[in-house]
Amino acid sequence: MLEDTLINHIEYELDSESMDVDNDVNSTSNLQIDSNVSRDVGTDVELSDEIQVPVSVIGNEMGLNELDDGSKLLYQNLMNMSPLKTSERILDDILSNIPLMKVINSKENCNTLRYNEQFNNSILKQPMIEYSKLRATVHPDSIGSIVDQIVIQSKFEYKSVTCPNHNKIEVFMGVLIDSTQKANTLDDLSNIIINHVKITVKTRTVLERTRRLMGLSKFHLVKELHPFDQKDLLTFDKNAANLIDHAIYVSEDTNKLILIEIFNPEFDSQEERGLFTPNVINQRYLHSLAEGEEPSTEDIPTGIECINTLFKVFKGPLTRKSSNDPIKRINSDNPILRLHMNPEWLVSKYGFNMVLEKDVETGDEFTEYEPPDLTDYVSNQQTRKIRESVTRKCLELIFFGKMMINLLSKEELEKSSKSLRTFNLLQTSFSTSFFKLLIQERGVGLPIENQSNYNIDYHFINLSVSYHYSERDIIQMFEVISKVDPDNIGHYYDSLQFIANAKGSYQLIAYCSKLDIVGQESLETAIKTFNLDLSVTALSSLEDSVIMSIYQAELKNKSLSQERHVNLRNALQVLASYKKSKKLKFFVDYEPYLNTRTAYNMLEIDESIDDDIIQTAYSIKVNDAPGLKLDCDRALYTIAIARRSISLFNFLLENNLIFQEYYTADTFSYTSALSLLQVNENASDENILEVFQKKWFEEAMVAFDHLLKLKAALTKIAFQRNSKLISNFLETGVIDPSCLPAENWPTGLNNIGNTCYLNSLLQYYFAISPLRDEIINYTKTVDDIENNLQLQGITRRVGGRVTNTIEVERSVQFVYQLRDLFSEMIYSHSRCVTPKKELAYLAFAPSNVEVEFDSEDGKSQRDNISTETVDVGADGKNDNLLVDFDSNIGANGRDEKLLVDLDSNISDKIKEEEVKKINTLKPVTSTRVAKISPDQLENALEMGRQQDVTECIGNVLNQLESASIPLSLDDDEEQNDLLKNCFLVKTKQSIIPLEKSKPPRNKIERFLSLLVNIGDHPKNIYDALDLYFNDELLQMEEYGEVRKTLSITEFPSILQIQIQRVYYDREKFIPFKSIEPLPFGNVLYMDRYAELDNKELIDTKNKARIMKKELANMKKRQKELLSRNELGLSRKESLIETKRLLMSDVLDNNGIDVPMKTSLISQIEANLLEIDRELTTLFNNIRDMELNISNMFKEFQSIKYNLFAVFIHRGEASYGHYWTYIKDFQQNSIWRKYNDETITEVPDSEVFNFIEGNTATPYFLVYVKNENIDDIEPLKRIVSDCA
């Protein structure tokens, strides 16, 4: 082949050349100093916009004849020089330089860009702020380089000329290619532009060791090189014709120097880049034929062969090591050379010489192309420039060749195998990782595609920072850039704020808040965000209240996004700084969190804890982290608003004096305070507090400081009036009854000995106005009741029992006692009254215990009457009425012994003839004194201590009913009266055979309260009721397999729920109390338990039943996996211990051989993984299913009850103390604690306290139907003026 002849002639074979290249590219003899080829291409660029470096910047204390010892800063006072950039910013500028200039110089931008005139075709030397907004609009170039340095050397390291012992110079040469350029054909490839970059770094090792600062290096632009550096960088020519852009940056701490040069393509004409296109190659072939040459068609080269030939032409002089080596020339008459390229360009464009030679043998003259001598590049500047130009040509050809390979056909690739081998052996890379090594600065050189999108945001570019920079480095960059460019400090401040919010960095946000700077861009954005029209009113004169009203109106928008909120908050902060408004700044700094959970997380507390614990948590957090005080204040403010807690607001004002500037009594006049609360100056303190509480607890939040304003106004009123009542309320958040007139607070009940739960019960009944009114107006006698029954000719039953006359007499007397007490509670001037001993005795003594009363003539009512009396023993116990703690609790959660089955034989039913005999006595009834001995009273009170509270409730209700005239009778003669109207729940128990041919069996049951079982571990009140009303599958002899269902057919106006907490320990033979929490809420919806003909509800209940069954199975399986054996090990722990034993030496040491030990260990490991997987799956599935079940009935909320009474027992099963909480719907829905003679207002958090381990547990919950709320009236006082 003619091509081989040419290649052999010029002796540029790749293999042989590789042998000639000194592998020690870093040796001193091969150190290279790059140069630029001076060519007449383009125009010289005078960079008039470069920063003029003052003489003081370049150290002149050393004479130029002296050597640089490497320990002195050559460039001083750099801190005042602009621009300054980080190394990462410099790298991005290199990659974005040409794309940015294309945008700037485009026709559509030429007349609109603000800084166009200042660019002067240079991006590298411009401050970031000049081009930062354009950066995101361009795609950066890719930087390509040669990985191996054997064939072509493009990376150099050499010693400094002026300080060879301490300073070094490193050079990188690469190409810049627009990766968006696509070439589908060889003609397209000729349009690809490949630019060049050269980066030279001079490192002063002594200064790096002694003066290197922590953090980022800051590089300042300089115009002139120090004379010492000029000697080391002789190849640099800022006026080179093919130089696109350049810049010199020097670090302020160690004077590390970075010289960046970006060049035009070496093959800068379309003619040159087209030499390898098919059309041009064919033209050269036709030209050869015209010249009389006779190349065959097989000699027509491919494009890759043309590039390879040209590459080898330029590579030859680069591999020549010494001037003593022969110069390898190329015969000008070689026909193949003419087919591959235009040989004349070697002289006219590429610096070759035409040499006339004579053949020694024939004497014929011929010409050859002689390449330039590049061996003397160390001392000759022009040689270095030519050598550098040749190197760039080789790089350009290499990357063209790499791209062309993908465009060649299969036939062309087969034909060009030798050329392909040349380019395939050359490893290239498109990576910026070289820059990290070159700069020797940690964290730079990240691939552009792996960087955050924030890094090309103009805010980050303005400060020359990246998203991953530390807060310390970002702050330093802001401070230094603001110092060197103070005219644009507003823009830099805007950028810092954006970065702070983008990173969510408290440190940066706090730092920004300390700076009194407002940038124009931020100001304009803030004005636009608030939609302010400044055409009429200047921003400086705009009232703060107007801005705040706009802001708060936006916050009320339910569709407000988090992004919009952040923008509004940033805008408000800008406006506050611009207006120098302390009030606006206060609002934005201490704005409550939108999400209350964020506030609790900040203080690291749970939402269920009390206010005093919140205060403690706040104090600990602030003491441990003083820098977080502002955030802690915001959190405390947020929680105080959410809870509407006066005590938390007081604590906030005490710990943050800034709040006192805006929310104290001094901020209101007396008149304006009254106006805010909308009360008259003649209103009493009690009325003012009532209005305040209504506004405080019920009024919508018009602004997040609304409560603080209300509190400040009330403080002013308290001060003006010198009101002890209001002042005490402001200090504690609750009303002090001692400061109130008696008529403004409920009456307490003194404890006369073990009567705490009786007192709680009586206060509860007193709060039910229909029941209280009935008792207060009670005037009936036994005769009235008996005559009414005889007149109607009926026999009534109370609780399934027929009452005798003696029981009725006792009941009437009990009501009279209760009437007197209730009357005293209403009309007494005292804050507490004492129940009579007769009332306590009648309440505690069982209803079938006979009580004697003195008649009007002083004779005993029981004279000459023989009756059977139940003896109350000396221990105070009625042996027939002991609580059976081991009662049989059914699967539905009910204590079967407490259910009344009206269809069964009643064990304690009095025989009809005995009732008639007793009723013939008919004593005359009047208010009488019970004949109770001190021993009897003491025994009764002792009984009260031991008695279950439900027994007391039963005694009281039984006597109230026995003393009532029936309103009607049920079919079974059960009496209907006011109490049943209030409390009675009718349920329907259905036995439904699964065999549809058999009819269901229904039974109606009556209950005055529902019983839920805490022993079933319900997670809340709904779960407990679900267990109570749970369907059961049973096997019955008569029906076979059946489903037993339970539903409510009639709902009471007042729903009572008893919580079964006392159980019997069979091992210790003692009762014990469960203190397991049972969460409940203010509202209870009973739709799911009603007998309703609602298909959707029925379907939902069926679906819930299936899900609960599945949930029970999952929990059962979870319990199995977590259960422990007799050694206290779970299943997983047992396997782990077994594995450890098998892997230890214990078995081998004891001569125990375990067959297939390895296999067994593998099986154990597989089992462990399976247990972990199953437990994880179970946990997630249980959590999701519980959530789904809890949300299933949200659409069924028509039967609504509101909580209004909670009975509490604190202590153990055999002792303790009782009190009750009662809600006053008519007094701003406050809760009061009725603790015998003491009645106090309490916060909701005390009532809804479900903390584990709390022995003060609810045992009786009372809900009132939504339409009957007005029947609840805890406060009923009528006190006359005269004592």
From TrEMBL:
Keywords: Coiled coil, Hydrolase, Protease, Thiol protease, Ubl conjugation pathway. GO terms for biological process: cellular response to hydrogen peroxide; positive regulation of mitochondrial fusion; proteasome-mediated ubiquitin-dependent protein catabolic process; protein deubiquitination; regulation of proteasomal protein catabolic process; ubiquitin recycling; ubiquitin-dependent protein catabolic process via the multivesicular body sorting pathway. It comes from the Eukaryota. InterPro entries: Papain-like_cys_pep_sf, Peptidase_C19_UCH, UBP14-like, UCH_repeat_domain, USP, USP_CS. Pfam families: RPT, UCH. Its EC number is 3.4.19.12. Transmembrane segments: none annotated. One of its GO terms (molecular function) is proteasome binding. Residues 747-1266 form the USP domain. SUPFAM superfamilies: Cysteine proteinases (SSF54001). It catalyses: Thiol-dependent hydrolysis of ester, thioester, amide, peptide and isopeptide bonds formed by the C-terminal Gly of ubiquitin (a 76-residue protein attached to proteins as an intracellular targeting signal). Residues 1097-1124 form a coiled coil. Belongs to the peptidase C19 family. This is Ubiquitin carboxyl-terminal hydrolase 2. The gene is TPHA0E01710.
